[in-house]
Amino acid sequence: MEFEFEREFPQYFLCLISLQIIKDPVTAVTGITYERQSIDKWLSKSAVCPVTKEALPDSFLTPNHKLIHDLDGDSLREIEEIAGESEGNRRLMEESGAGEALIGFVVRRFREGRIGGLEVALRILPRVWSPAAAGEIVQINEFVEALIWALSTKMAESTKIHAVEILKITIEIADPSLQDNLDPNFFPKMLSFLQNTSSERSARAILQILLQTSTSIQNKSKLIAAGAIFAAVELEFGDREKRTSEIIFCLLAHLCSCAEGRQKLIEHAAGLAVVAKRILRISAVVDDRGMCVIEQISEIHSGPEVVAEMLRANAVAKLCMVLQADCGDYLKMKAREILKLHSHEWSNSPLCTNLSRY
Questions:
Q1: By the 8 A CB rule, do 98 and 10 touch?
Q2: 180-188 — which CB contacts under 8 Å span 24+ positions?
Q3: Most buried among 149, 160, 228, 348, by the most CB within 10 A?
Q4: Residue 62, beta-bridge partner list
Q5: Is the pTM higher than 0.90?
Q6: How far apart are CA 195 and CA 202, in angstroms?
Q7: What is the widest separation between alpha-carbon atoms in the chain?
Q8: In this structure, how many other beta carbons lie within 10 angstroms of the beta carbon of residue 31?
Q9: First-residue to last-residue Cα distance in the chain
Q10: pLDDT by residue (tens digit) across 267-317?
Q11: How far is 247 from 239, CA to CA, in rounded Å?
Q12: Among candidate residues 54, 51, 44, 48, the one with its CA nearest the CA of residue 15
């Protein structure tokens, strides 16, 4: 492959055999550094240096730690500048393995507990790394841990957005078994990031991560126990963008499909009220997921206190509004069924004087 960067790329980061960015550098006795996999393959067919043609026994290959650590300095910022100059540069860097090299750098920083160069690496990574390559990450579990660690450091909010979105992509494409091996503190940490972020974009990515990683019954229970219901309800208190509210309601409906989730929603003083208030105000997705939550509460978790709370929280009044609103017939059917289910308890309320007509 012939590389044509618009500015000269630091050649000492390219393997002279593969012409790709070196991720695991080893230096031969000739003083030339190669990618380990490339030089091993070369030496399996020829015992001479591909550049100098000198005899080259494979036992004389030594790791080049200096090249790895050089990414701390000006070279990393130079790579960022090159990536920022044109789409062509970014494409060539992606093809040459820049993404994998930067992932390796982030993991090494995590192992060392050092943050030098971390922000720059996370800024560059989304530009030169294709989501399709996420499944090819050899150390994917450790990379997930490294990203969570990075989010706990004192980085700029803009860089944390990149880290969260990289984490989201990695989890989306990773083998499903990754979810079974998440760190025990994964959900508490993610909820802490969610509550502390000031970025709507970051909040959406974290909410999507929580949805993606809680498909199993075990992880759903862990997420609920970590406080996800309270966090989602309180996040919805603010002035949220439409897409953020939609993901919040998808998460609430998902968690309320089990008894622990419904109980936590009822325990929150404003839980049912927030759900009822948002129906018919934001989007069809919120209407659908909000009605799903109310249906689950009313049909499965419907003790006397819950039925009374639904009336107090204006959930019953909202059900009546749904019947009169310009919305999907299936939503009207759900509302009608819920109202019929508890019509005896609610019929004496001044808010429901015409309940019998439904």
A1: no
A2: 180/216, 181/141, 182/144, 182/213, 182/219, 183/145, 183/148, 186/148, 186/213, 187/213, 187/214, 187/219, 187/222, 187/223, 187/226, 187/228, 188/226, 188/227
A3: 228
A4: 27
A5: no
A6: 11
A7: 96
A8: 9
A9: 71
A10: 999 999 999 999 999 999 999 999 999 999 887 766 778 778 888 888 888
A11: 14
A12: 51
* Amino acid at the residue 89: N
Tokens read off for 22: 């070196």
Does residue 73 have a pLDDT over 60? Answer: no
In the numeric block, which tokens belong to residue 301?
């978790």
- 167 residue type, one letter: L
Token pair of 100 as six digits: 């994998």
């059917």: which residue's tokens?
Answer: 333
